[in-house]
# Entry
Amino acid sequence: MKKNKYILILILTFSSLCIFARGKSDKPENTKEIAEKKIEQIEENMNNKTVTITGNVVSYGNTPFAYPGIRMEDGKTYTIQADSPLKKKLLSLQGRKIEFKGKIITQEENVLHRETFLLESYRLLD
# Structure
């Protein structure tokens, strides 16, 4: 009997949290809107041109799951997308000022609130 009571409390708590969270969401509710938004985002990313930005290499995450990022002088941050050997090389350059060449990929649902930088090449400045 006691076990059933706890299960019922858990179910009610979870369902009320789901209802509360759904009411607070400002995301589109129907799947057509979501699909259209995703297609628009993909097209925008495909049309991105190669850009050059300057900033410092920073490390995000904890070892052994650390990954490199870019912090620009104005405080804007990016997550670097590159192959594993290049990521390791960039992590060894942490704190150095570098000129990065690549594409900025916007991701609406990025939990870290950072844009991704698809790295093509880089050059040390200091």
User: Anything to note?
Assistant: Helices lie at 2-24, 31-46, 84-92. The longest strand covers residues 51-60. The CA atoms of residues 57 and 93 lie 7 Å apart. The chain has a mean pLDDT of 76.
